[in-house]
Amino acid sequence: MRFLATILLFCAILVSFVHADTQPSTVVDILESDPRLSMFGEGLRLISELRTELRDETKSFTVFAPTTEAIRRAIAESPHILVEAMKGPCESSLRLLPSSNHFSTSTNLISPSPTPGAMSILARILSTHILPAEILSTQIPEMSARVEQTLSTPIPEGRPRFGTLVGSEHLVISRDGTNIYVQPVGMTYPAARVVVPDIVVKNGVVDIISGVLMPTNLVKEIPEYCYRR
């Protein structure tokens, strides 16, 4: 009997270790393993510096990750906006996004040979979706007035603003009952809704959202290197 109890205890400990090893430990693990986020995760793999930072378990992050469906929809519905945003400040053409037709058969986000400028812009877009702190849905303040997902004007002044990994970009995050909305400050396109909140890991939380958060200053800033060409 004692031998059987010892065997059962050993098996329980072994299973617990195996289970722990297979659990996602960082936000990167979620972003690169969840099939709903395949396009966002693919982009992250290309930006090694950002990926390394998000694997740091001594830091905390909140990632608002758009689904692949949301990214495809954004490209299909507003291709001119995304194409303009993806144009490099110096390059006459920037091979970052493939043609719209490409998205109907593939999840590839990046062209085979993206330019350094394209990679820089991709890093900025990804970083706009990330806060350098863990914010759970229960910490989001309730809105005093109802705001629908179809919001087409900037969220009113006074809403809390959260700084992203892009120093000049901030997000307004509001909760209306069980609905949470996210929108870059200064943008007028519809706010994204959190469809899956609080996927908690060791170094933060991932919230899956219904739309893409485009940086407000992306086309307003010209890097210094452009003037040295």
List the SSEs and their pairings:
Layout: H1 2-22, H2 27-33, H3 38-46, H4 48-54, E1 61-66, H5 68-77, H6 79-86, H7 116-128, E2 130-131, E3 161-163, E4 170-176, E5 179-184, E6 192-201, E7 204-209
Parallel strand pairs: 1-7
Antiparallel strand pairs: 1-2, 3-4, 4-5, 5-6, 6-7
Helix pairs in contact: 2-3, 3-7, 5-6
Could you write a compact summary of the structure shown?
The protein has helices at 2-22, 27-33, 38-46, 48-54, 68-77, 79-86, 116-128; strands at residues 61-66, 130-131, 161-163, 170-176, 179-184, 192-201, 204-209.
Largest sheet: 7 strands, mixed
Order of helices and strands: HHHHEHHHEEEEEE
Report the helical percentage. Answer: 25-40%
Distance between the termini: 80 Å
CATH class: Mainly Beta
CATH architecture: Roll
Q: What is the average of the pLDDT values? A: 73
Strands ordered across the widest β-sheet: 2-1-7-6-5-4-3
Please tell me how large the radius of gyration is.
Answer: 20 Å
Structural class: alpha+beta
E-strand count:
7
Beta fraction: 15-25%
CATH topology: FAS1 domain
By DSSP (H or I, 4+ residues per run), the number of helices equals 7
How many structural domains can be distinguished in the coordinates? 1
